[in-house]
Amino acid sequence: ADCFLHQEEDSEEEPKLKYERLSNGVTEILQNDAASCMTVHDKFLALGTHFGKVFLLDIQGNVTQKFEISSVKINQISLDESGEHVGICSEDGKVQVFGLYTREGFHENFDCPVKVVALHPQFTRSNYKQFVTGGNKLLLYERNWLNRWKTSVLHEGEGTITNIQWRANLIAWANNVGVKIYDISTKQRITNVLRDNVSLRPDMYPCSLCWKDNTTLIVGWGTSIKICVVKERNPTEMRDLPSRYVEIMSAFETEFFISGLAPLADQLVTLFFVKENSDQMDEEFRARPRLDIIQPLPESCEEISSDALTVRYFQDNECRDYRLEHAEGESLFYIISPKDIVVAKERDQDDHIDWLLEKKKYEEALMAAEISFKNIKRHDVQKIGMAYINHLVEKGDYDSAARKCQKVLGKNMELWENEVYRFKTIGQLKAISQYLPRGDLRLRPAIYEMILHEFLKTDYEGFATLIREWPGELYNNMAIVQAVTDHLKRDPTNSTLLTTLAELYTYDQRYDRALEIYLRLRHKDVYQLIHKHNLFSSIEDKIVLLMDFDKEVKIMVEELADRPELLHVYLHKLFKRDHHKGQKYHERQIGLYAEYDRPNLLPFLRDSTHCPLEKALEICQQRNFVEETVFLLSRMGNCRRALQMIMEELEDVDKAIEFAKEQDDAELWEDLISYSIDKPPFITGLLNNIGTHVDPILLIHRIKEGMEIPNLRDSLVKILQDYNLQILLREGCKKILVADSLSLLQKMHRTQMRGVRVDEENICESCHATILPSDMAKPFSVVVFHCRHMFHKECLPSSGTIPGVQFCNICSAKRRGPGSGILEMKK
């Protein structure tokens, strides 16, 4: 902020206005003289002094013209809208109205001070050349048809007129009593707004008047502000009243004394005079004028901003010494004091960015600059971005700083390289690595290699990530391969480095070396490498290793379709690992097993739940695979045919008996006995094994007399031993059962012999009343069952079918079914 603007340095609220002194010629004028009034035009300024001079100034404060009007104070200067005519009045009664380019006009000396003068806004264009002056009277001057000046008294008798503001056809003026408005078109006075605080001297605390538009007048007097709107009266209400009337839209009190007012959109700019003895202000701020922006409300106002201004010699000034003028075309506000003139203007986007940078709000500043890059003049988006990056680096937020580089540095490769070297200097190459350019625009290969070497020293995982993410053409591939190889000499089993080396070999089209590493690591990307570069000829001796990869079976089956032996090995290993993964190929595997690996066919048929049995049976029958055919027949439910094949083609009684035992079917045993009855070796086998499944008598009765049976005696002895063993087992089981039953009976008896506690907390399960009566002196009967349910005797239903035997109603109901207990109790 400028030296004359006092605000709290750590304030988080951005100021609304910026200030600068009007210097150049003004500085020289005010060294020897003092400003008494000033009027603002779009193109120039007119300054009056206490020594009776009027200066025309450009916007920068340079003097363009000087008029010696009087030897005493200039009270008022008025310009018409065109800026071609000026009206001047002074404390010694002089009034001059003349053209700035002609000097012709009205020149008059009065015998009393003239405080104010106001030209008709269209004075230059008007034929009547009207203007008004204010002293003790409000006088209207106009030229008649003879080109002579005619004077009319519009108002008098209410003290000195201190302010006049002319807008369109309305003249507003202030005197000791209040504010009046005169309609020049109808020649009617339409309002009288009384002064609120009559105790203040009007010469010390003059009225401030300001037209916001052609019908809205803002009145400030003392500490009071009123916003008045001139409205057209309804013709039906006219009678003898003026055609217009004034409605006060807003009226409120302020904290300090008003020295000037100006509109700013729907808000007000107010210049306040602060008295030295005001308790509300700190000592440091006393007597400095304040420029506030306020939002008027119907009966109060809201402060938007407030600035205390250290104008020169503010300690010597009174309320009447300050004035506030504004330029209608743009938001420029001039604070006039005797020895200083300050210009306030709305802050633009550059000022907004300045403030954000001052408060170190770099991200917001960058965003504001990007949005308004066409409108900002003093700032550059990239420079703001660089300042933001520097700030983040100083703060230690290296990742955010690196991320911002993408946005800020854009396509400027020189800036990118500078930033990379800076991040290297502070040891933060890792932070910037993931944001480096890697598209059409790229840095020198040495930059990328420097970062890769840095990662390789400290972070193998990060190095691997960069190799995967960065296109290989960014750096010298062979140099990086050599660097990785050197590191692997120190750590030859590091899987991260090996995988990364394989990726580098792949990019360099050295697929055999990449494949060797992938297979050694059992890496999932081996499939992609084999398939993409047709490396199947390189893996015939390594096909089993592929079982360690979790990839799509379909790809391998399609690739190995022309190599059935390899396909069988692959599918067999896959089946061993997961019976379901290659289920859609189980039908094909039947033929492959039959052709290349019969020993594993039967285990495959046993374990697979997805191979078609009919197809398998057909293949096995064609190739006369008896064991596999027997298994398939039994699986399909044709057990008799399977048993027949075992007995006729295999002639293996033990296998036939084992098969019958597995099926546990009486008809199968009958078939087996019938087939074996004329074959002594079969009878021997049956006698040795049948005892535990079928009654041996059935077999013995059917043996023909005189048939020679090998080892018959041993077989019969074994049958008797098996029978005795069964009898012993039954007797042992019976003893155990009796002992267990007796033990449990004793336990139940002990449990039922225990006492049951009955107290006032127990209730009758029928009537739900307390089981014990309140009067224990009276006789009462309670029935307690072993199941712990309790009833009043009178609440129990009558005895059941067995006289004298009573059952628990609840437990009986549970055994009989839902609702039966309720029915029982109702009986």
UniProtKB/TrEMBL annotation:
SMART domains: CLH (SM00299)
Entry GO CC: clathrin-coated vesicle; cytosol; early endosome membrane; Golgi apparatus; HOPS complex; late endosome membrane; lysosomal membrane
First-listed, main subcellular location of the protein, grouped into a coarse class: cytoplasm
Signal peptide: none
PANTHER family linked: VACUOLAR PROTEIN SORTING VPS41, VACUOLAR PROTEIN SORTING-ASSOCIATED PROTEIN 41 HOMOLOG
Key word Nuclease present: no
Family that this chain belongs to: Belongs to the VPS41 family.
All copies of domain RING-type, residue ranges: 764-812
Domain of life: Eukaryota
UniProt function note: Plays a role in vesicle-mediated protein trafficking to lysosomal compartments including the endocytic membrane transport pathways.
CDD domains on file: RING-H2_Vps41
Molecular function terms, GO-annotated: zinc ion binding
Biological classification of the source: Eukaryota, Metazoa, Chordata, Craniata, Vertebrata
SUPFAM superfamilies for the chain: TPR-like, WD40 repeat-like
Subcellular localization: Cytoplasm, Cytosol; Early endosome membrane; Endosome membrane; Late endosome membrane
Gene Ontology biological process terms in this record: cellular response to starvation; endosomal vesicle fusion; macroautophagy; protein targeting to vacuole
Membrane topology field: Peripheral membrane protein
CHCR repeats: 540-685
Keywords: Autophagy, Cytoplasm, Cytoplasmic vesicle, Endosome, Golgi apparatus, Lysosome, Membrane, Metal-binding, Protein transport, Transport, Zinc, Zinc-finger
One Pfam family from the record: TPR_Vps41
Name assigned to this protein: Vacuolar protein sorting-associated protein 41 homolog
